Amino acid sequence: MTDQIEMAELHGQPVIKLQTPDGAVALISLFGAQVLSWTPAGGEDRLYLSPKAVFDGETAIRGGVPVCFPQFGELGTLPKHGFARKQRWEVTNTRPGKDFTLVTLRLVDNEETRALWPHAFAAEMSIAIGAGRLDIEFEVENTGDTPFSFTAALHTYLKVKEVEAVRIEGLRGLEYRDCVDGNTPKLEMNTSVIIEEKVDRIYHGMPPALLVHEDHRTLGIHAENCPDVVIWNPWEHKCANLADMPADGFRHMLCVEAAVVRQPVELAAGESWWGRQSLVAM
């Protein structure tokens, strides 16, 4: 490790602390390869981590950027959002640079994953910070002899001052599935999407860029090879029923997730897939 990359602890669990020469900082949990915090140089933390999140090495951590794999949500027979976010990942590469810092973590199939999903695979998360950016690349390789398919998402919890003051631009004209309204297919007609009630939507056709505006700042979200984008906020009643969220937590978070959901990825033996999401502080 170097002065830009060091091991630390958060609530008793091991994390990697990334720093850049200009002062940006990120924390990544080895449990789930989950980015928990990202603070651009001279700015504020842009990711929401619930103050009631559980850090016991077994329970999914509420907040940051959980990795949903090999199943998104309940769209299959596996536990919700799959198993990757509840596995211990291994650090395989670190790279400090003049204006960036990068770490790569790896997960391969094991007895526990094969009991749930009988496939051989290798997954990698490459996380880099620098120049006001957080870049996350997720790669999956089929290391077995038979094909498999999966869905996935980078379940990003953005930290906001007040969710009702947020405007999301870039979704106009996209079809989406409204999971609050019985999975009804709809078309987004609004130039700016605002959050005034429970929202759970899967948009199809991720645009090259989304802009999340608040009164005092903007966040750009760019995705590659992730054709869907999920927008989620549990709102008041559901939030009150989440043991690992404060009652008013919904006001200070908004999930905007690069995903591959509608059309599962199919990998033949030896094939691989990758998807990327970049957050740019403005």
UniProtKB/TrEMBL annotation:
Q: Which Pfam families match?
A: Aldose_epim
Q: Return the EC number.
A: 5.1.3.15
* Residues annotated as transmembrane: none
Gene3D superfamilies from the xrefs? 2.70.98.10
InterPro entries per UniProt: Aldose_1/G6P_1-epimerase, G6P_1-epimerase, Gal_mutarotase_sf_dom, GH-type_carb-bd
* Keywords from the UniProt entry: Isomerase
Q: Which residues participate directly in catalysis?
A: H155, E257
**Annotated Gene Ontology MF terms?**
carbohydrate binding; glucose-6-phosphate 1-epimerase activity
Give the SUPFAM superfamilies listed for this entry.
Galactose mutarotase-like
Taxonomy, superkingdom: Bacteria
Q: Which reaction does it catalyse?
A: alpha-D-glucose 6-phosphate = beta-D-glucose 6-phosphate
**Which terms does the UniProt entry file under GO BP?**
carbohydrate metabolic process
UniProt GO cellular component terms? cytoplasm
Q: Which family does it belong to?
A: Belongs to the glucose-6-phosphate 1-epimerase family.
User: What protein name is recorded for this chain?
Assistant: Putative glucose-6-phosphate 1-epimerase
